[in-house]
Design a protein that fits this description.
This protein has 649 residues and is α/β, with parallel strands linked by helices. It contains 19 helices and 30 strands. Strand 16, helix 10 and strand 17 form a beta-alpha-beta unit. The two termini are 31 Å apart. The structure holds 5'-O-[(S)-ethoxy(hydroxy)phosphoryl]adenosine (WTA).
């Protein structure tokens, strides 16, 4: 199988920061050998109204339940308890707008806002068990909406603002959201995005919505529908209310986050209150070792799991001060990130390989303009980091003093599962390796048949036992939960990644093994894009795949077969792109569309995306037997011939 990390073995390990091994190994060992003892202690990172009967109930696999009958409220832990300490007047969030505007909200102030919003939801008749959808830019009110819902036991689904009306409507409908919270607009790269208009279209398509709450964020004029739409600032005008936090069961739902998989329909990943909180708070502590007075900046979007777990829940549970920013990271100038670090004295920075590669391209001049000495730990997430980007991050940004915490995880895992644990001490880092499993994580590398592979061999990464951050399940779809994650390797959690363990025990993540691609760190299902294309009247069939891209990691390429009588020309390409942008949103728009006469399929009718990709990216000839599990070599050869013939024409 092809290697994806360049120059891996030639890098001298000792050149990089060497942590003493510390007690990581003993800690990890104990977490696996004495899980009850381990979690009985580490679940106390949060306060519980009443303690659990059992650390783990595994009587109905794979529906694992942690801290059964334990009662808690996440917002009590994120807010109220800090008010009893010196953290009362501490900044919870420092918000920076694209125009340079800033807002600082203390723990006391955030609790006021959350209570006022929770009260507004109660006034609208919402109660425990109901759902809301949040479709917001990166503003403080987005976090208030999440926490306000959690305070009264309402589960939320937050939809990334790069999704369009149809994608939003599908998610609203799947979870049955009664309220949508949005803003009059979002600022991004100097442009204004009319979120409210998209919500209006989505609400037309989804029948469950009774009310829309709109935050004033821009000067954009929006239409308010009488009796349905309410201004956030009006319904939260009374900021002096107290809403009693709902006593939630550890295994009640906290949120549903939709993510892409190997079919067109996004999966509603459900996370609970107890296990999830314990997991995100502990993993942030173990991996980044934040100190009381640190400033933490997770520069992800709140619409993805990274934002949920490490902008909102983990830092608030730990009582940290977080920077949160609206807009694009290279606008108005390519030094925006470095400027924010200097201006706010950021100590811990957490971003994506895509952002690092993009900022690296602007050269060293931009970071050199700023004093970055406050930085102590640098993190990355979302896709494998190539050693060249790792080195630049380490040397140019961290001045060879800051460890790189490469965190490997997924929407479904709740928080980090493989990552350096700087608090515990993990030994030397290797550029491009996420190093070792977090406490409680028991990974294994398997071949197609489920046989355990030895060191230095690429295979599928699976996890042998549950951990507290593992999702509760998929919304309304227990069968799909079982079949997607626990059937390829029975009894083990598997979710589509290749990996390898080297002879020193370090894990190397080697990309997706399924139909999911990572574009600028965003998780996208190629089949979702194919479905969107095929739903347009000109398209008969399509095959979508990711081609390597030096900045974005992968770029989306679509092969399209048009219907009879349709003229396949440049105008059609533009029309298809526009159609996808309007319905599904900008993040699903292909970078390239090519018209073809046929796309190769296996005899059972499965599109051979890997073969198409290999031919397109010039990886053929090579070992075709590894390209497609379900097709014979002869079939693949035939597919290659078809594609070649088409490209010769
Ligand atoms: C990929 C994002 C390599 C991986 C938190 C995974 C990574 C998918 C890393 C989940 C990493 C995430 N190194 N690959 N450090 N982190 N991935 O659900 O393929 O948006 O399965 O969660 O991102 O994407 P998701």
């Amino acid at each position: 199988m092809a290697e994806t990390n360049e120059n891996r073995s030639s890098l001298p390990v000792d050149e990089y920061i060497s942590h003493h091994r510390g007690n990581y190994e003993a800690f990890h060992k104990m977490s696996l050998e004495k899980p009850d003892e381990f979690w009985n202690e580490h679940a106390n990172i949060i306060d519980w109204y009443s303690k659990w009967d059992k650390v783990l109930d595994d009587s109905n696999p794979p529906f694992f339940r942690w801290f059964t009958n334990g009662k808690l409220n996440v917002t009590y832990n994120a807010l109220d308890r800090h008010l009893k300490s010196h953290r009362r007047n501490k900044a919870a969030f420092i918000w920076v707008g694209e125009s340079g505007k800033e807002k600082i909200v203390t723990y006391h102030g955030l609790l006021k806002r959350v209570n006022a919003f929770a009260k507004a939801l109660q006034d609208a008749g919402l109660k425990k068990g109901d759902k809301i959808a949040i479709y917001m830019p990166m503003i403080i009110e987005a976090t208030v909406a999440m926490l306000g819902a959690a305070r009264i036991g309402v589960a939320f689904t937050l939809v990334f603002s790069g999704f369009g009306a149809n994608a939003l409507a599908d998610r609203i409908t799947d979870c049955g959201a009664k309220i949508v919270v949005t803003a009059d607009g979002a600022n991004r790269g100097g442009k204004l995005i009319d979120l409210k208009k998209i919500v209006d279209e989505a609400v037309e398509l989804a029948s469950t919505v009774e009310e829309v709450i709109v935050v004033r964020n821009t000067e954009n004029k929006v239409e308010m529908v009488e009796g349905r739409d309410y201004w956030y600032h009006e319904i939260t005008a009374d900021q002096n209310v107290f809403v009693e936090p709902e006593r939630m069961d550890s295994n009640d739902a906290l949120f549903i986050l939709y993510t892409s998989g190997t079919t067109g329909k996004p999966k509603g990943v459900v996370h609970g209150n107890g296990g999830y909180s314990v997991w995100v708070a502990n993993t942030l502590k173990w991996a980044f070792n934040p100190q009381e007075d640190d400033r933490w900046w997770c520069a992800a979007d709140i619409g993805w799991v990274t934002g949920h777990s490490y902008i909102v829940f983990a830092p608030l549970l730990l009582g940290l001060t977080s920077v949160i920013y609206e807009g694009a990271i290279n606008y108005p100038e390519p030094d925006r990130m470095w400027d924010i670090i200097e201006r706010y004295g950021v100590n811990l920075l957490y971003t994506s390989p895509t952002a690092i590669r993009m900022l690296m391209r602007y050269g060293d001049l931009y970071p050199a303009k700023h004093d970055l000495d406050s930085l102590r730990v640098l993190g990355t997430v979302g896709e494998p980091i190539n050693p060249a980007a790792w080195q630049w991050y380490f040397k140019t940004i961290g001045k060879s003093r800051c460890p790189i915490v490469d965190t490997y995880w997924q929407t479904e895992t709740g928080g980090f599962i493989i990552s350096p644990a700087t608090q515990l001490g993990v030994g030397s880092l290797k550029p491009g390796s996420a190093t070792f499993p977090m406490p409680g994580i028991d990974p294994v590398i398997l071949d197609e048949a489920g046989k355990e592979l030895g060191d230095n061999t690429k295979g599928f990464i699976a996890i042998k036992r549950p951990w507290p951050g593992l999702m509760l399940g998929l919304n309304n779809d227990p069968e799909r939960y079982k079949s997607v994650y626990f059937s390829k390797f029975p009894g083990k959690y598997y979710n589509g990644d290749y990996a390898m363990r080297d002879s020193d025990g370090y894990y190397w993540l080697l990309g997706r093994a399924d139909e999911v691609i990572k574009v600028s760190g965003h998780r996208i299902g190629t089949i979702e894009i194919e479905d969107a294309l095929v739903s347009m009247k000109e398209v008969a069939e399509s095959a979508v795949f990711g081609k390597p891209d030096a900045v974005k990691g992968e770029a989306v390429v679509a092969f399209v077969i048009t219907k009879e009588g349709v003229t396949a020309d440049k105008a059609l390409i533009e029309k298809l792109k526009k159609g996808i942008r309007e319905t599904m949103g900008p993040i699903l728009v292909p970078d390239e569309i090519h018209f073809v006469k046929a796309v190769p399929k296996t005899r059972s009718g499965k599109i051979m995306r890997r073969v198409v990709k290999a031919v397109y990216t010039g990886q053929i000839p090579g070992d075709v037997s590894t390209l497609e599990n379900e097709a014979s070599v002869a079939e693949i050869q035939e597919a290659i011939n078809i594609l070649r013939k088409q490209s010769e024409k």
